[in-house]
Design goal:
Blueprint (H helix, E strand, L loop, with lengths): L1 H16 L7 H24 L7 E4 L3 E4 L28 E6 L9 E8 L17 E7 L2 E4 L1 E4 L9 E6 L4 E11 L22 E2 L5 E5 L27 E2 L2 H4 L11 E8 L17 H5 L7 E7 L3 E2 L26 E7 L1 H13 L6 E7 L4 H7 L4 H11 L5 E6 L3 H8 L8 H4 L2 H4 L6 H18 L4 E5 L26 H16 L6 E4 L26 H20 L2
Parallel strand pairs: 12-15, 16-17, 16-18, 18-19, 19-20
Antiparallel strand pairs: 1-2, 3-4, 4-8, 5-6, 5-9, 6-13, 7-8, 9-10, 9-11, 13-14
Length: 570
């Protein structure tokens, strides 16, 4: 269509100018040549290339303008590089796009991009005797914000390619980003390294040719579309035609990637859109809460929506003015106390604070929290937290009819303490056997596998009605942050989300052995991975551990609905 419009516009221009002397035969030849090549390029683009500049329409006498739909994040509206110190040395410049899905991008279909490097005979491309894979941050944003996943890795730097997959659930214009985070990353399985200087610094460079602008269309047919992407499988996204409340199976996961196919962050409002409305929309007051909730900062709000069309309980359902209609008020078990127990690091603490705030005034719900600051192993050996004693005290104080539910995690502090070379001379030797540390075979992933098994064995013995492990969040994101103050120092491995992904894979392996003990897994990784723009506001340095208010709210409401479905059966 645009190809035809370009050709018609050029010919119309020729007809208007032909009678005048202002146009030489060379100018005519130039315009005709431009029109021909423009038409040819655009015909090729719209026949085979799904990557388009932007959705277009004609205005007036042939002028084509472009605009994004309402409640769509336009290209450049989300942060990208935000100022951290990064090295000049990178192989980002050696990458190129090898291929793009030849079909139009469609809802619920895989959109595949393959990228590779031109590293042959390039001394700056690969370290000597180092042929490690690169690491990436993969995100697409438009009507929704979704993560990507790598299905295929190259066998060597000079042979092969990375196959990146995105699956869209909302039609519209998307900005697709493939960001190189580490050029030559040592395998996570070999950490900790001996010296901190051996840990490569974070780069965060967009690959050449990115961002891509992609227009996603509705599916050509309404029947079920099965996505076969190895572990990236979820075939029941069309199962429900009517909206319903999300249930237990919507919230628990079966593999490290099952959550990516269940839900996505959908744009619900933008301050600069004419449809935007709030009670304070004309206020000039700027506040910390306004900044952290995007009202006085990014100006974009999103909601975590499930692809099955089930409904996540909204914050408004916790309004105390609803009285009997308030969340948890109609639970048949409200005559008994529901004890919500959290065991984990500060990410679980802020989740607890969020749900406690939503349930403020509900006297039948009590909260308990045990901090695992420093990680599980360190606390069990050195203290101050001891899980067995903590759970024993709760059980001792509980009334006979109290209902107990547990959300637990250990991960980020274990990564920080066990995988980083900076901790080698710290207290690590105080709680891990010195002979093991000096053996030359100690790795943080093996230690995590061991300590997590110990942790789950303790949880298994506690008489709780609901036991859920939350996978570790995609902490320490660098690319795409908003409102972060950076120091001029490199952001080194292992403080990167990829470590959380590997530790989560281990967690799924370990918990598979406890499936008969009714210990389930709730996602904390994919819900946080695509939202580096929504982080905790405050003096948090470069750790970036905590999700922001919008993300925490969704995480707290997921957990609340798991409790409601299990305990209250509604």
């Amino acid at each position: 269509m645009i190809a035809r419009e370009n050709l018609v516009m050029a010919i119309s221009y020729l007809i208007r100018l032909w009678p005048t002397s202002a146009m030489s035969k060379y100018s005519i030849l130039l315009v005709v040549t431009f029109a021909f090549f423009s038409a040819t390029i655009n015909i090729r683009m719209f026949k085979t290339d799904p990557v388009t500049a932007i959705s277009s329409k004609r205005v007036g006498s042939g002028v084509i303008i472009s605009s994004a739909d309402v409640n769509t994040i336009s290209p450049g509206e989300l942060p990208g590089y935000t100022g951290w110190a990064r090295p000049e040395k990178t192989i980002a410049r050696s990458f190129y796009i090898k291929s793009i899905s030849p079909e139009y991008p469609q809802v619920k279909k895989e959109f595949v991009i393959t990228v590779t490097t031109q590293c042959t005979r390039n001394k700056n491309c690969v370290e000597e005797e180092n042929d490690n894979n690169s690491l990436f941050f993969l995100r697409a944003y438009g009507p929704a914000v979704i993560p990507g996943i790598i299905k295929n890795y190259p066998t060597s730097r000079s042979d092969g390619y990375y196959e990146v997959v995105f699956v869209f659930y909302d039609p519209g214009l998307y900005t697709v980003e493939i960001v190189l985070t580490f050029s030559n990353s040592p395998p996570i399985s070999v950490f900790p390294l001996k010296y901190e200087s051996q840990e490569p610094p974070y780069e965060g460079y967009l690959l050449p040719g990115f961002p891509l602008l992609v227009t996603v269309q509705e599916a050509e047919y309404a029947s079920k579309i099965k996505i076969n992407a190895q572990t990236l499988i979820y075939n029941d996204t069309d199962k429900y035609t009517d909206e319903r409340a999300c249930r237990f199976d919507d919230f628990v996961e079966t593999s490290p990637t099952s959550a990516i196919m269940k839900a996505r962050w959908v744009v619900t409002s933008k301050i600069n859109e004419k449809e935007y409305f709030s009670k304070t929309m004309n206020s000039t007051v700027i506040s910390t809460i306004g900044y952290s909730t995007n009202v006085n900062s990014l100006g974009i709000n999103m909601e975590y929506k499930y692809n099955s069309n089930c409904l996540l309980i909204p914050e408004s359902s916790f309004d105390k003015n609803l009285y009997e209609q308030r969340a948890f008020s109609q639970c048949p078990q409200t005559k008994h106390t529901i004890r919500i127990i959290y065991i984990g690091d500060s990410v679980l603490r802020v989740q607890k604070d969020m749900l406690q705030h939503l349930l403020k005034g509900v006297v039948t719900v009590k909260f308990d929290y045990l901090s695992l600051h420093g990680g599980y192993r360190r606390n069990q050996v050195l203290g101050p937290s001891n899980i067995e004693n903590f759970l024993r005290d709760i059980h001792k104080k509980a009334a006979p009819n109290d209902i107990q539910v547990i959300l637990f995690n250990t991960g980020l502090h274990d990564i920080h303490r066990l995988c980083g070379a900076a901790m080698e001379g710290d207290e690590r030797r105080d709680y891990i056997d010195t002979n093991r540390l000096n053996s030359g075979s100690f790795t943080c992933v093996d230690e995590y596998r061991s300590l997590l098994r110990d942790f789950v064995n303790v949880i298994k013995e506690f008489p709780a009605q609901l036991k859920v492990f939350q996978s570790s969040t995609a902490a320490w994101p660098k690319y795409g942050n908003y409102g972060i103050e950076w120091k001029p120092t490199p952001q080194r491995m292992p403080l990167v989300s990829d470590f959380s992904a590997v530790f989560n894979e281990i967690a799924y392996e370990v918990l598979e052995d406890f499936k008969n003990d009714n210990i389930n897994i709730m996602d904390g990784y994919w819900i946080t991975y695509p939202r580096p723009d929504n982080r905790e506001i405050g003096e948090i340095g470069n750790k970036l551990s905590h999700p922001g208010v919008e993300v925490l709210s969704a995480m707290a409401r997921k957990w609340a609905m798991l409790i409601l479905d299990t305990v209250c059966h509604n």
